[in-house]
Amino acid sequence: MTKKEGGFLISEEDIKKRVKELADQISKDYEGKQPLLVGILKGAFIFLADLIRELSVDAEVDFLAVSSYGKATETSGEVKILKDLSESVEGRDVVIVEDIVDTGLTLRYLYDLLKTRKPASLRICALLDKKERRQVDVPVDYVGFEVPDLFLVGYGLDFAEKYRQLKYIRELTPEEVKNI
Ligand code: IMP
């Protein structure tokens, strides 16, 4: 993770290495089990795709789509389910896979919601953690990188639906925010 002239950056290489480390940890923790990875759309789709391919345990996948910020860079605090899971999670070992934890409001809501559906276990894996922005407590079991309070894009993370395709993660400059 580096801070270069161009601003904050997590390189493709650093992401790859860390995703493999997370997958190794998850494979170890879920040995002999078949976890259900629940990806939070849209931001987590690239992370989830890379993570599952590094697992050595069999895993299943499902997705939840929740409302995002729209064009603003601040959360509204309201979480709306746009697409629910396709299957029941009752009795399953569920791992919520998220791109970034910011205020924690989204994950807190989703964690509590899935908990009511009686999974055998429930954990959270987030690629990025903006810890200093947290407003509510969330139990994040697997964290890729702790990141500073900057608006980040790339590797699935967007700003107004742009930049998701970048292979690295970088800071969005105030000029770029203005020009959207
Ligand atoms: P929270 O509810 O405030 O924790 O926000 C979580 C969601 O906000 C994430 O799933 C992202 O969709 C979005 N988000 C938070 N910070 C960023 C960022 O720096 N870049 C892109 N999206 C972000």
Taking pLDDT < 50 over at least 5 consecutive residues as the criterion, the unreliable ranges are none
Q: State the secondary-structure class.
A: alpha/beta
Q: Based on the structure given, which CATH architecture is correct?
A: 3-Layer(aba) Sandwich
User: What is the CATH third-level topology name?
Assistant: Rossmann fold
Number of β-strand runs: 10
**Major sheet size, sense and barrel closure:** 6 strands, mixed
Based on CA atoms alone, the radius of gyration comes out at: 16 Å
* Bound small molecules, deduplicated: inosinic acid
Q: Summarize the helix and strand pattern as letters.
A: EEHEHEEEHEEEEH
Helix content: 10-25%
Count up the domains.
1
Quote the beta fraction.
25-35%
Q: According to CATH, what is the class?
A: Alpha Beta
- Gross geometry: globular
Q: In whole angstroms, how far apart are the ends? A: 27 Å
Mean pLDDT: 92
Strand order in space, largest sheet: 5-4-3-6-7-8
Tally of contiguous helical segments: 4
What does this structure look like?
With 180 residues, this protein is an alpha/beta fold. The chain has one domain: Rossmann fold, CATH 3.40.50. The chain is built from 4 helices and 10 strands; from the N terminus they run ββαβαβββαββββα. The protein has helices spanning 12-29, 45-53, 105-115, 174-179, and strands spanning 2-4, 7-10, 36-41, 60-66, 81-83, 93-101, 121-129, 142-146, 152-153, 169-171. The strands form 2 sheets. Strands 5-4-3-6-7-8 form a 6-stranded mixed sheet, with helices on both faces. Strands 1-2-10-9 form a 4-stranded antiparallel sheet. Helix 1 packs across helix 2 (45-53). The longest helix is centred in the first third of the chain and has 18 residues, at 12-29. The protein is globular and about 50 Å long. The two termini are 27 Å apart. The model has no long low-confidence stretch (mean pLDDT 92). Inosinic acid binds at residues 43, 68-69, 75, 98-107, 151-153, 157.
